UniProtKB/TrEMBL annotation:
This is Chloride channel protein. InterPro entries: Cl-channel_core, ClC, ClC-type_chloride_channel. It comes from Leptospira stimsonii. One of its GO terms (molecular function) is chloride transmembrane transporter activity. The keyword Acetylation does not apply.
Amino acid sequence: MINLANLLRSPLLVLSRKNPFMLSRLTFFYVILGIVGGLFSAAFWMLIEYLTHWASNISGILTIPFMTVSGLLIGLIIHFLGEPGEISLVIDNIRFRGGKLEASQNPSMALSSLLSISSGGSAGPEAPLVQITGSFGNWFAEKLGLTGEEYRSMTIAGMAAGFTSLFGSPLGGALFALEILQHRHVVEYYKALLPAFLSSTSAFFVFLWMTHAGLQPTWQFPQYVPGDIQDFLYAILLGAVGAGIGWMFHGLFLTNRWFYSKIPGRIYWKTTLGGLVLGIIAWQIPLTRFFGHDQLNQIVEGRFTLVFLAGLIFWKTFAITTTVTTGWRGGVIIPLFFLGACAGKFLFGILPTENESFLMICLMAAVNSSVTKTPISTTILLSELTGLYSFTPVLIASLSGYFLSPKEPFIATQGKES
């Protein structure tokens, strides 16, 4: 069996450290890590698509018992396989434990998140992908005998591979893996930029090869044609609207967290109740079911009343916060993009002379930045996901949403100091 530490010391890979223009001796392993992360992410994504397609055939009032039973199974998986943690734990480990992630949590995270996402929970696959591919980087670092920043960089490179595989943006995925850490000394992580880019790019190619996803945008928005300077003023106002939705999200999250924290007993009681609540909401408003990846195109292409869109925004927010506070597993980034698109569609109904794509994409950026505190990478990701070629006004909206957002972060460890 190949010893990675010995391979690292091979003359072919040990490049001169005196020449700053030479590639790192770890370059080879960042690329291999990206390939491994891309292979896993593609397999995980294809399984989610298959299970989601099967579960979507269960509709109407049958959604209630189906999601209730799914909640019970999710809780039983976590009870017997262990608490898999969430993205806040990943951030905590990157910042305070030098990048160490526990691979022992992967079975519980993989199984519970697969069931949560495919049965209809309002949470996406980015959290499990990031945790699992990050642990791959952790394994590489340990086998190579790395320490300090090299260890942390390898873990971050693994996280970036997971982000990129899902969002199809090597640049955005790498930046997201760094920006979500929200460290007040984030400059300390600049050494992880190149590792993250290398891992992201190789993961991206592998993911495309396995899934045949293609390079076209994920969501088919009509192209936004930039106007004049007033677009920047509108972007600031749209950022404020997005921040308002972020405040609503924050309030519902705190309310649901308080309510479900009062439920005694094992976690499966809480996840079962969460499944019941999510099933009832999905029965009444089917567009609140699932994490929004496919449903967002329905929002872009459809025509809805203002009353329906207002109700959808509230109940989708309620569904997302119920999902994350009852122990269901998954991430919130794509659900938040869905919320922003709904809000943009709502505003277009009020202001039909404005550019519809501009309203929707600005609000997608602002809502996500308000909650996840990632204005830069959010803008880059959306430019890839929507085919946007002029993203400066969207960046303004994203920054506006970020600065007007609640100071207490949704991801608790983003606010912790070293």
